[in-house]
Specification:
Length: 156
């Protein structure tokens, strides 16, 4: 991580911390740890340039992948086929934690850095914040090859 750069962001009310960035030069993937409050997650989206997978560390999550729903707890692994519409949500009563793996990871590195609010490096708890900046996230997605599907319609 270069000087002045953080590894931790508040993205739409979720805490995402890069453990490895695909853009670091010596990596072909990015790995993030995410903390998601109850009811939070990622809206339906797809991306053709990155493979993505999730490993649940704590909590209970519901995943939608290509129109099918899967619920899992700690130890569950979910792979997203490249280009598939997918979403997930913490359906538990407490914060849930996931590992998020993207390969090669460049688009997610850029998206989360642009869409999120930087936090001090290695922050582990979300600070209070206002409502999420949806327009900012949609614009960052469009610039980085992540298409959100809102009300059944693609945004990009």
């Amino acid at each position: 991580m270069s000087a002045g750069m953080t590894n931790t962001y508040n993205v739409l009310g979720n805490l995402l911390r890069f453990l490895v960035r695909g853009s670091d030069g010596d990596s072909s993937y990015s790995l993030m740890e995410g903390t998601f409050p109850p009811g939070h997650g990622a809206p339906p989206n797809r991306h053709a340039a990155d493979d993505e997978a999730f490993y649940i560390l704590e909590g209970t999550f519901e995943f939608m992948v290509g129109g099918e729903t899967k619920t899992g707890g700690a130890g569950t692994f979910v792979k997203i086929p490249r280009g598939a519409v997918h979403a997930f949500k913490n359906i538990g009563r407490d914060n849930g934690r996931l590992l998020v793996i993207n390969s090669p990871g460049h688009i997610h590195d850029a998206f989360f850095s642009e869409a999120g609010d930087p936090l001090p490096p290695d922050t582990t708890e979300l600070p209070p914040s206002g409502p999420p900046d949806i327009a900012r996230a949609l614009a960052a997605g469009q610039r980085n090859g992540i298409e959100f599907i809102l009300d059944g319609h693609p945004t990009g």
